[in-house]
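Figure-free illustration: sequence to structure, shown twice.
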Amino acid sequence: MRRIAMSVATTTLSASLVSCGALNTARSSGDASPTKGDDITVGLLLPEKSNPQYEQFHYPVIKAKVASLTHGQGRVEYANADADAGEQSRQLQQMINAQVDVILLDPVDTHAIASGVRKAKKAGIAVIAYDRLAEGPLDAYITFDNELVGEIQGRSLLEALGDDASISDKIVMMNGSPTDPNAEQFKAGALLALDGEVTIAKSFDTVDWKPQTAEKNMTEAINEIGKNDIKAVYAANDGLAGGVIEALKAAGVTDLPPVTGQDAELSAVRRIVAGEQYMSAYKPYPQEAEHAAEMAVAKAQGKNIRFDALTRDKVDSPTHKGVPAHLVPVVALTKDNIKDTVIRDGMYTPSDICVPQLAADCTAAGLK
């Protein structure tokens, strides 16, 4: 089994919940009732709305997979905290009060949500951390290998610079939110690739992952370093990449430097086709979401052998060691492999990507 040291984060929930009719409301989350059938309720708490992937892919895929695994009888109660840790705590308490069978939690603040996780555990409700590792007594965790994400981004950036890359090349790092432990892992992975190869001339942590903040910070970096002296930009996700590119364009940069990203947002895929963004770390969200749904249903139904088979990795949080985990692989999405990634996996169709203004670029990329 693989063991990885990791931190924590948070998520959200819906305002109105119905009782799920659990057979044993005092059950232990470690030994869910083996007699529980398909009539289960999965609580899903997601952290924010600035990243469209949460509501466009995560929630719909989880909802559909839960229904499929339970012959249409299982339900998903969903809430999104919109980057408000206090609201997410209230949403989690609502789910506990409604006695859902299991909770998938993507935390806004990994430390602040720990008390809510403890309350769920005391109520006999299993909590599976989703995408970000929360503190507290978790039953499991599913995510991507976050440090590897950053390393892939960093290696891709060096690849874009080519053989002439040197320590004199000035790089700007636009990192994610300081309250998101994943952001620190992305940064650490990127630095593994970049340290000693280029110069990090400016580095920013972007509160709440806001693209507007990234644009403001990039403008500051351009004014300080000089628009013609920035050789590349490490942007931790596609939203930040968009803000970075807007700042570069506003400064009059026509030959854009390589810019990384993450999440394979549709707008980012279009920028990649257009040559404005070099790459995005593609995390196959449908795969992550389907595995999460499988884990949640197995835990709710007491299918421990099935659950154990889905959690063969181990991670450590700041509060608990050896949390059962499932780590989903990632790949670098560039203009060369769009067909073999987001199109093959059904995230987008060529017509989604190839809007009229990208007709020539799509033809050149073999998408039309």
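We now fold a second protein in the same way, so the two outputs can be compared directly.
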Amino acid sequence: MGVMRLENGPLIGILVAKRNSRKRILELYERYHNLNLKLYAFTPADILWDEQRIIGLSLKKGIWKQISFPFPHVVYNRCFNKKLITIQRLEKAIGRNKCFNNINFFNKWDLYNLLQQSDLKAYVPDTFLYNEVNVSELLEKYKLLYIKPLYGSKGKSVYRVELTDNGDIHISLHSLAPRYICRKNESIQEKLDKLLGLTKYMVQQGIHMSQFDHQYFDIRVLVQKDILGEWTVSIITCRVAYEHYFNTSMCESIYEVSEILPRLFSPEKMNKILRSLYEVSVTAAHEADIHMGSLGELSVDFVLDEQRELWIIELNGKPQKNIYKDLKSIKRKIYSRPLEYAYYLSQP
């Protein structure tokens, strides 16, 4: 194994969770940037703390090599982890705020409270901690609820709970067809306690989503910092769920927003929605940045209700990039922006 000597241009490390994903992730970032910098990928286990070196994977003249590197100037965290210890130790070694996306595993309850106390309050559905509320009372009030784990991604374990006109309660997972039916005389709280177990959940006012060709969709805004360190919107897409499904994370298709909104709205209404999406997403990113330490990217998920008003459904600290694989025109932007921001942070 060779030892890396520093060439000109900053050294940027991408922190990933598993060794077998280093090459795949690095390949994408190598392909789409055109900056004067040296990139390597590493996992927490690759850090030699005593020697202040890292065994990293990098691409040299078209050949993949595992090399002993000095600590990088900047670390881009793609490691989805609640534990902050590795990032904190790295920051101690390379400098404060030189690691970005240090928290990328967002606690949904913390985020809800953050947005609830900001200028974006009007965009956030009422939300409660599951163990602090009476679900029957909330159902009487809202008729529709979503119950989500505090730490979750890709719509896993998100339950849709609906009070029907005949008094039965339908509990669905992913698809609209009920997985469980709670009759009028049964206790919904007992049923849910059994279903949810010990995992921590929150309960959110259900938004009746508007549809596109009889299918539910959401709007995902990818917000990234650029080479000037400013938050900027990189792409806005619509994820269209499978028919009879409410979970847009398991989506049938993904479109750029410009393909969907014109088919639903007048140009005037569409421009108003687009303006709001830009402004609200950048404001949400600023809020998260202030309270969660240095971030370089996140995605904001919205739905439109039946009155065509926007609601923020959630923020993701490690946006999935592979959902954009068919949108060739924007790939360069979404992979190069984090490296632009890393370059910006590396400057003295």
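Summary for the second example: The longest helix spans residues 267-292.
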